[in-house]
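In line with agreed milestones, work has continued on tokenised descriptions of protein folds. One protein thus recorded appears below exactly as we store it:

>
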Amino acid sequence: MHISSGRWLYGMFLALLTAVLWGVLPIQLKQVLRAMDPVTVTWFRLLVAGSILFAYLAASRRLPRFRPLGKKGKWLLALAIAGLSSNYVLYLAGLTLLSPGTTQLVIQVAPILLLVGSLLVFRERFSLGQGLGLAVLLLGFGLFFNQRLTELLTSLSDYTTGVLTVLLAAFVWAFYGLAQKQLLTVWNSLQVMMVIYLACALLLTPWASPLQALALSPSQGWLLFACCLNTLVAYGAFAEALAHWEASRVSATLAITPLITFVSVALAASWWPGYVQPEQINWLAYSGAVLVVLGSALIALGPSLMVGLRARRARMQGLAKPLS
């Protein structure tokens, strides 16, 4: 079993860095998608990130070997490749129809679906605290969509299509997450991501149009490069954060990602009003976004909270025991 290093302050910094990078990513992608299609943007991101990882692992002589995978491992690898490539493309397809903040909030469903999958596949427990977090999260989504709830439930508009597309992206990501969890028993995280990134890029090659990059403006070109680096650096910071801090606390910290997106959109819209549009939601929707974040954090911290409550109850019972 992995034990964190105890450098919790460093782990918290890395988790916050990951949240910031993931928070600004949809704003960057939204600008790039004005000149490129989702498949081509995904192809560039995966190819650049995978190539950098390949160079690093080759230089350090840590390239993965495929023989230890076995037949089952190869099927899991295929599932992870299909899941991640589909997730990236579907997320961007949804982003073309939605605002960055809405897209980032809806994709919060992905860890919840991974949790449900873990309950079914790995027989993990679902605590009372996680149940409370799920209720808060669902309430938050209801409040967030208060202005367009009727549209979501009664018509197939562009907005509804975008939400459904991002939900599908979250669904396929859960399959990727379950497969990757098993692959980590054979390879380390960098080896897994290198193989998956390059395999996904190869899978998408027939549908990618790299020459679209020539149509990018200088600012869009830099934003595309920033998206590629974001894919690499954010994941690296996330993996390193897990080495120094408990996974539940890292996940709870990452739950603030949608709020970072909303703040970033507001700032970008005030600084560059010609490029970034502000979120068109009311105060009730903002309250819902906060509840979604709170619910996500409770789900991540649920098991730890229950363990802490049991330990505290045991201590109290020990103090209350009469002396003989």
